[in-house]
């Protein structure tokens, strides 16, 4: 295990940047290569009332709104804002047209922090982290604008941002004035005996973005929901980082890699004075051992057990579900992290995403098997596949809601749908696909 | 390389965007997980029976008795089929079961087959289908499934979510039917059900129980019944079948290996009166965390006061890594009525005295303080525990009364932080809003208060007084969280703070089983377990258990049901050649990377028949462990030699070494800088001979260790004795030994003497270096070399004479009182022009004497002018600093250098220093292992010894210069494998052994890359790759 502070490439504390149209030239070249099709800069606006090429999905903290990133993968619509983020009502399973916002093409994953006021989307087409507001009705916008959200795109500086995850930290920020400031937080900053400032608690969103190409992970911080306060740091942490997950035990980010034979853990370091990001600190590199060069080194989804003691990684070289021991090294104090692989369960071809859900009295691991068009259900306690769930299409991303609706949402990329899988152990349709959203 | 990969990745992404998934190629093996050999004797082209019927008395094929079919069957987990491998010829090959169908075809079975076993007569294969949760019965002749056996417990499998995992089977065995051993039965291990089940059946061709050629068998009378249930939520997972109806198992949620016996005389230990029952349980970890009452006192693990931490042992005979002290010996050494972990005098595992402690309370001082005739723990007023300080009355915070009349009683009273507080109205000095010490600072504003529970604002950790009379003062008292702590009485630990810290409903020690002692730091849960797979050798003599969490293999004695600790010198810790490996907390053999499959073997090394017919044999008991790194380890349990009815067991418990050469020491040399040369020449009247490391008498040398020895053979030329019968007259022959002597082990066995006529066999003892434990490293022995150098130190602002480290640990850094600390960083320029207070640090040698060491701080004092050990002043410096360092004169982030006085520092380039100290609280205590020769300081004209080597450091005629260094290399000469040994793929699932009429084979199955490697068991050489 190595603890390294990787060389940080860019530290950017500027105000919010507006993506320049000149960047589209570079995008166009990349997009042309990515698609292998003809380039069409102009085009129609995408539909706002349906799903198409769904990739990333996320739930708001209440579980009542499902947000879907639609990728415009075949570039049927204008490339600059041909993708969308759509809101689906989790009760009616209907697309809320009024809530949809347009984003760049080739959107990736989406994450919504616990406060539920922001949505962060990695967009490959414009190499951005797109930051959207979520209002009380669940509608997405960029400062009220739903069609042209270019003003809410933060450049990542590296190609193919895809995976994204975030957590929120609270820090104390001293601001002038004592309006609406609790007495115990008022401060006499100039020593004249009168309180003139307030030490306010400010939420800081820390967002990590994984890039499918290159070896960078890009991290952002945004204070108080104000995109103008963003700071950015990049660091070469994992080659072709595919998926990110946050350890519930120690708050470290974990990234899988498509090209390195390891899972990497890292931490975001903020400057104690400014609160801005100052470094990405790699805390561990978990070797996932020798893969056959004929099978590739490809690791995909990663998910943690509820107690944060184990992590599960869908691996494609060899095809397996890896079990990682990420519990504490000092059991008595709960400190440290063991970070080593302890088991390997063979999987069918192309395991993709992984989620962990609490079902009844146990945790089960759900693995999307893209080629098999099904989800495998693994009981980690007995390390056996205990069920299989057939799907009407090839599953890519999984999203579990085991506290509100007892469901798993599954993106069926090729079909342009979201399948719903019932994981309510009391239900007659337990472990069956009960419908689709489209 | 990264660039190329990135380009390749980009290309991949380009095309993957439009064309995912890729079409997989046609494969012969699709996720193979397990392989079983079916051997059948076909007699008269009619009856198919066990292969023994086709063999002669010597086990050789007898063609007149019939023909032999030998085919192996492989579960294709992802292909829902069985592949067939022919062993009819010397090179095995996959068989196409349907040649008229394109591609390789297999035998269809249920969904997700993971395990397969063949009946003893080879006529049937039983296949466990993981997805379907049932068994496929396959006819070996027909190569077709002929029956399904449901394992479901409910009426309809899969509809009851709570039963989702109930049908999961982790192991499958074919065994003789207990009621009729001419028939077979199956044993299945169900982890979720917590049981072993037995499946019995009959089959009929023309006649029941006789399989005839061309038969389409009918399977009948199938029963699935519980053979043994473990109960209490215990989940067995891995298992291995031993001889005589014994099944060894490991568990998902227990750190033990259990022996389930169905026959024999071994007594049941599970309360049952008849077989099948558990006849042994072996802890697979330290005795204090295995869930077993190792010492039979009715107390298990944390409940046993001898268990101070999870890695200690319940009794002297158990497995643990803590030396035996007064605090874990099961004896009330100080007679206070409390023993070991219950005694507040036992601060931790390294504490060798029950006396003293955090607080010398009236309930633990051995005195009848209240004169009621009973002392300490026997006094009912001490019912609150040993930490209560009044034998005359229960504490006001535990007496059930509202003592201060505020309406709140005991724990409900906010004034009662713990039950042990004597006064509901009393608040600690650091939480009473009063400036107790009159320094103008109140409570937490006073730097002498480390927290609201502190009871002294006056800094009890810097006063040079043993305030709590526990025998430890200031830095040495673990109660001093830092030198600036208010008192030597530590704040309550989690295990005595009256709070249910982990929310399990149990508070503190001893109620919460996660608390090993009252001074424990956390009520944390037990650690995760990943034991298995497990293997038993054909004689049942040794059992091997894989510990995937620690990447090690544990070796058990199958007969005595005991763990063989590789680090206890074969049970003789007092043996002259006993060395425990430093930092050795593992109790198994490291195999690195993920061990995934294991197979136990017995290799016959030698067999000699004497003229009189007596036979000598030597056998090696070992296990092959396949890992995901591709390396297959040879874990050797013992070499057993037998002759004339006598057996010698040379217990090894080592990883096999494929390098014939022994570990060695090379490159003995020294640093001959120009300074050293000039120094030597200046001492000579004439120029003399050239200056060389090995011969120059002015220089120190490493030479062979001197002293007594014990000859290992009658003619041991390495050990010279005046009287061969008296070891006290023996000394080491320096001419024969290398200057640096490496660890050795003595092996005993029978061996034949072919030079004798007639040939004889005798007992032989052989001493060999223990390559397994010798590290590859470059060692330096440096006179007054640097012990510790840090760049993050700072002068403590709140007290003078203290150097603090920001993030390190001075205890494990090896610093000791008496060492010299030098501040290398210069005095800050900004202050030198100020009030002159920093002038004392300008143009002087900034070296102080270390007077005390704690984890976070070093106390330093100026070196007296008449100090005989004062170091030489650096060139150009005329004076030494005469005052303690001041924080304002030095920047934060100081570079400090600590060196010993007139001492040599032994350091490995990779190993570093062997420091026998660690941090407990903030005090330095000895490390928890029990290697007496654990250290790094060597002295001239004395012998130095650490767990790996020893040498004698001969002084030269001159006092050595500081930083003069001697060096040598230790070369391990050890390899766990070679090109001529077994190897595996990246995800091995099975290592097994087949005996056929042609040869013995070792197949290694790998579902990750869909291959089976086949090796020749006679020489472990590669034969064929099946895919």
Structural overview:
The complex is a heterodimer of chains A (438) and B (1027). With 438 residues, chain A is mostly beta strands. Among the domains of chain A are: 152 residues, no CATH class; 129 residues, no CATH class. Chain A is 3% helix and 49% strand. Chain A is built from one helix and 32 strands. In chain B, strands 1, 2, 3, 4, 5, 6 and 14 form a seven-stranded antiparallel sheet that branches. A six-stranded antiparallel beta barrel of chain B has the order 37-38-41-40-39-42.
Q: Helicity level of chain A, as a percent range?
A: under 10%
Helical region count of chain A?
A: 1
- Main sheet of chain A? 6 strands, antiparallel
Global structural class of chain A: mainly beta
Instruction: Kindly report the oligomeric state of this protein.
Output: heterodimer
Q: How would a textbook summarize the main sheet of chain B?
A: 7 strands, antiparallel
Total of DSSP H or I helical runs spanning 4+ residues of chain B:
4
Uncertain runs of chain A: 1-40, 291-296
Class based on secondary structure composition and strand pairing of chain B? mainly beta
Spatial shape of chain B:
globular
User: Could you tell me the radius of gyration of chain A in angstroms?
Assistant: 22 Å
Distance between the termini of chain A: 45 Å
First-residue to last-residue Cα separation of chain B: 30 Å
Mean pLDDT of chain A: 84
Total number of strands of chain A: 32
Quick tags:
heterodimer, A: 438 residues, mainly beta, six-stranded antiparallel beta sheet, five-stranded antiparallel beta sheet, 1 helix, 3% helix, 49% strand, disordered N terminus, B: 1027 residues, seven-stranded antiparallel beta sheet, six-stranded antiparallel barrel, 4 helices
SSE arrangement:
The complex is a heterodimer of chains A (438) and B (1027).
Chain A: E1 4-5, E2 11-12, H1 22-35, E3 54-59, E4 65-70, E5 83-89, E6 95-103, E7 107-111, E8 118-123, E9 128-134, E10 140-141, E11 153-155, E12 161-176, E13 186-187, E14 197-211, E15 216-223, E16 231-236, E17 241-246, E18 253-257, E19 262-270, E20 277-287, E21 299-304, E22 310-316, E23 319-325, E24 340-346, E25 351-359, E26 362-369, E27 374-379, E28 384-390, E29 395-401, E30 407-412, E31 417-422, E32 433-437
Chain B: H1 2-16, E1 32-43, E2 47-50, E3 67-76, E4 81-86, E5 93-95, E6 107-108, E7 113-118, E8 124-129, E9 134-139, E10 144-150, E11 171-176, E12 184-190, E13 195-204, E14 211-212, E15 218-229, E16 236-242, E17 246-251, E18 256-261, E19 277-283, E20 531-536, E21 542-547, E22 552-557, E23 562-563, E24 589-590, E25 595-609, E26 615-627, E27 632-643, E28 646-655, E29 664-670, H2 674-683, E30 701-703, E31 719-721, E32 730-732, E33 741-742, E34 744-753, E35 760-769, E36 777-783, E37 788-795, E38 802-805, H3 810-813, E39 820-823, H4 829-832, E40 847-853, E41 857-862, E42 894-899, E43 904-908, E44 918-920, E45 923-925, E46 937-938, E47 942-945, E48 949-954, E49 965-971, E50 990-991, E51 994-995, E52 1000-1006, E53 1011-1016, E54 1021-1026
């Amino acid at each position: 295990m190595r603890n390294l502070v990787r060389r940080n490439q860019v530290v950017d504390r500027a105000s919010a940047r507006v993506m320049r149209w000149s960047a589209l030239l570079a995008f166009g070249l990349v997009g042309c290569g990515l698609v292998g099709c003809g380039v069409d800069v102009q085009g129609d606006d995408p539909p706002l009332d349906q799903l198409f090429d769904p990739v990333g999905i996320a739930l708001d903290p209440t579980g009542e709104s499902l947000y879907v990133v639609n990728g415009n993968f075949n570039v049927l619509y204008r490339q600059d804002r041909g993708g969308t983020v759509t809101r689906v009502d989790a009760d009616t399973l209907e697309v809320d047209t009024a809530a949809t916002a347009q984003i760049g093409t080739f959107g990736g994953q989406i994450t919504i922090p616990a406060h539920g006021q922001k949505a962060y989307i990695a967009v490959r087409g414009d190499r951005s982290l797109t930051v959207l507001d979520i209002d009380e009705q669940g509608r997405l916008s960029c400062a009220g604008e739903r069609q042209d959200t270019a003003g809410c795109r933060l450049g990542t500086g590296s190609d193919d941002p895809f995976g994204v995850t975030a957590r929120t930290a609270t820090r104390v920020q001293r601001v002038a004035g004592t309006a609406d400031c609790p007495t115990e937080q008022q401060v006499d900053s100039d020593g004249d005996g009168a309180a003139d400032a307030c030490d306010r608690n400010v939420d800081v969103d820390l967002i990590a973005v994984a890039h499918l190409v290159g070896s960078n992970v890009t991290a952002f911080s945004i204070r108080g929901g104000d995109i103008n306060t963003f700071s950015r740091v990049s660091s070469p942490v994992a080659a072709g980082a595919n998926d990110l997950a946050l350890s519930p035990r120690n708050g470290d980010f974990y990234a899988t890699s498509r090209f390195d034979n390891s899972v990497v853990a890292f931490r975001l370091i903020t400057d104690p004075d400014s609160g801005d990001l100052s470094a990405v600190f790699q805390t561990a590199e978990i070797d996932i051992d020798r893969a056959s060069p004929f099978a590739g080194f490809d690791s995909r989804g990663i998910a943690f057990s509820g107690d944060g003691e184990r992590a599960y990684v869908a691996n494609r070289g060899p095809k397996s579900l890896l079990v990682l021991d990420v519990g504490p090294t000092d059991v008595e104090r709960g400190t440290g992290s063991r970070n080593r692989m302890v088991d390997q369960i063979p999987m069918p071809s192309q395991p993709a995403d992984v989620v962990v859900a609490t079902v009844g009295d146990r945790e089960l691991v759900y693995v999307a098997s893209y080629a098999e068009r099904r989800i495998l259900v693994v009981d980690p306690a007995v390390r056996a596949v205990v069920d299989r769930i057939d799907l009407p299409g090839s599953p890519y991303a999984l999203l579990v809601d085991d506290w509100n609706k007892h469901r798993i949402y599954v993106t069926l990329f090729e079909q342009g749908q979201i399948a719903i899988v019932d994981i309510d152990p009391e239900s007659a349709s337990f472990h069956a696909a009960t419908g689709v959203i489209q | 390389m990264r660039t190329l990969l990135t380009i390749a990745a980009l290309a991949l992404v380009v095309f993957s965007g439009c064309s995912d998934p890729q079409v997989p190629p046609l494969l012969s093996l699709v996720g193979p997980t397990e392989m079983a050999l079916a051997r059948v004797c076909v007699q008269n082209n009619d009856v198919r029976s066990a292969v023994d019927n086709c063999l002669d008395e010597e086990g050789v094929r007898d063609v007149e008795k019939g023909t032999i079919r030998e085919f192996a069957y492989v579960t294709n987990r992802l292909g829902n089929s069985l592949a067939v491998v022919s062993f009819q010829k010397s090179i095995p090959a996959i068989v196409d079961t349907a040649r008229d169908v394109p591609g390789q075809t297999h035998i269809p079975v249920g969904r997700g087959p993971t395990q397969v076993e063949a009946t003893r007569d080879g006529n049937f294969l039983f296949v466990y289908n993981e997805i379907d949760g049932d068994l496929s019965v396959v006819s070996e002749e027909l190569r077709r499934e002929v029956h399904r056996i449901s394992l479901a417990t409910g009426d309809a499998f899969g509809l009851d979510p709570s039963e989702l995992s109930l049908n999961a089977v982790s192991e499958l065995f074919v065994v003789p039917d207990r009621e009729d051993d001419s028939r077979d039965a199956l044993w299945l291990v169900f982890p979720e059900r917590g049981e072993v089940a037995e499946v019995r059946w009959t089959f009929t061709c023309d006649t029941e129980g006789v399989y005839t050629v061309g038969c389409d068998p009918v399977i009948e009378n199938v029963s699935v019944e519980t053979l043994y249930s473990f109960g209490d939520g215990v989940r067995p997972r891995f298992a291995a079948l031993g001889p005589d109806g014994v099944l060894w198992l490991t568990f998902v949620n227990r750190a033990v290996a259990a022996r389930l016996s169905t026959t024999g005389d071994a007594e049941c230990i599970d309360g049952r009166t008849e077989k099948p029952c558990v006849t042994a349980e072996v802890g697979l970890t330290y005795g204090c965390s295995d869930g077993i009452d190792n010492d039979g006192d009715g107390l298990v693990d944390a409940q046993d006061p001898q268990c101070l931490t999870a890695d200690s042992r319940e009794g002297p005979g158990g497995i643990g890594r803590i030396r035996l002290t007064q605090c874990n010996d099961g004896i009330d050494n100080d007679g206070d009525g409390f023993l070991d972990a219950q005694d507040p005098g036992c601060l931790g595992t390294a504490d060798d005295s029950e006396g003293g402690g955090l607080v010398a309370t009236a309930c633990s001082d051995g005195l009848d303080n209240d004169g009621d005739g009973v002392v300490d723990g026997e006094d009912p007023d001490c019912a609150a525990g040993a930490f209560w300080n009044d034998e005359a009355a229960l504490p006001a915070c535990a007496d059930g009364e509202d003592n201060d009349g505020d309406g709140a009683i005991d724990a409900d009273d906010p004034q009662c932080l713990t039950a042990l507080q004597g006064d509901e109205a009393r608040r600690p000095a650091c939480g009473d809003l009063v400036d107790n010490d009159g320094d103008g600072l109140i409570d937490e504003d006073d730097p002498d208060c480390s927290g609201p529970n502190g009871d002294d604002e006056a800094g009890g950790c810097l006063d040079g007084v043993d305030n709590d009379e526990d025998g430890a003062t200031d830095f040495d008292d673990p109660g001093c969280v830092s030198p600036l702590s208010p008192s030597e009485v530590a704040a309550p630990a989690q295990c005595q703070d009256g709070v249910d810290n982990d929310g399990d409903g149990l508070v503190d020690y001893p109620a919460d089983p996660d608390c090993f002692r009252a001074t424990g730091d956390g009520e944390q849960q037990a650690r995760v377990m990943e034991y298995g797979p497990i293997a038993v050798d054909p004689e049942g003599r040794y059992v091997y258990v894989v510990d995937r969490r620690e990447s090690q293999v544990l070796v058990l004695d199958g007969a005595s049901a005991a763990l063989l600790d590789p680090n206890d010198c074969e049970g003789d810790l007092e043996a002259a050649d006993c060395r425990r490996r430093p930092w050795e907390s593992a109790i198994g053999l490291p195999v690195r990377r993920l061990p995934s499959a294991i197979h136990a073997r017995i290799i016959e090394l030698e067999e000699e028949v004497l003229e009189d017919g007596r036979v000598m044999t030597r056998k090696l008991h070992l296990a092959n462990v396949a890992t995901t790194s591709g390396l297959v380890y040879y874990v050797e349990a013992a070499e057993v030699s037998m002759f004339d009815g006598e057996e010698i067991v040379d217990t090894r418990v080592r990883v096999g070494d494929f390098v014939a050469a022994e570990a060695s020491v090379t490159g003995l040399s020294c640093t001959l800088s120009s300074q050293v040369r000039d120094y030597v020449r200046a001492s000579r009247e004439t120029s003399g001979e050239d200056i060389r490391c090995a011969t120059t008498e002015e220089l120190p040398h490493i030479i062979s260790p001197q002293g007594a020895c014990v000859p290992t053979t009658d003619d041991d030329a390495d050990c010279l004795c005046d009287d061969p019968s008296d070891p006290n007259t023996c000394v080491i022959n320096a001419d024969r030994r290398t200057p640096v002597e490496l660890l050795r082990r003595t092996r005993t066995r029978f061996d034949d003497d072919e030079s004798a006529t007639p040939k004889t066999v005798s007992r032989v003892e052989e001493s060999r270096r223990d390559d397994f434990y010798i590290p590859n490293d470059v060692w330096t022995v440096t006179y007054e070399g640097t012990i510790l150098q840090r760049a993050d130190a700072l002068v403590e602002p709140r007290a003078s004479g203290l150097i603090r480290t920001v993030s390190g640990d001075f205890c494990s850094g090896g610093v000791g009182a008496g060492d010299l600390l030098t501040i290398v960083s210069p005095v800050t320029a900004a202050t030198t022009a100020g009030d002159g207070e920093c002038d004392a640090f300008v143009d002087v040698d900034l070296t102080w004497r270390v007077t005390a060491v704690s984890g976070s701080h070093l106390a330093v004092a100026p070196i007296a002018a008449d100090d005989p050990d004062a170091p030489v002043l650096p060139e150009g410096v005329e004076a030494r600093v005469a005052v303690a360092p001041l924080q304002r004169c030095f920047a934060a982030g100081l570079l400090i250098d600590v060196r010993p006085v007139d001492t040599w520092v032994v350091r490995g380039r990779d190993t570093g220093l062997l420091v026998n100290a660690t941090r407990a609280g903030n005090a330095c205590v000895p490390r928890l292992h029990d290697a007496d020769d654990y250290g790094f300081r060597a002295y001239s004209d004395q012998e130095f010894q650490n767990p790996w080597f020893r040498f004698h450091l001969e002084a030269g005629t001159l006092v050595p210069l500081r930083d003069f260094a001697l060096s040598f290399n230790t070369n391990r000469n050890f390899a766990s494998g070679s090109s001529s040994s077994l190897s595996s793929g990246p995800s091995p699932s099975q290592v097994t052994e087949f005996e056929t009429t042609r040869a013995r084979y070792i197949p290694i199955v790998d579902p990750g890359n869909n291959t089976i490697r086949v090796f020749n068991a006679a020489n472990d050489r590669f034969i064929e790759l099946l895919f």
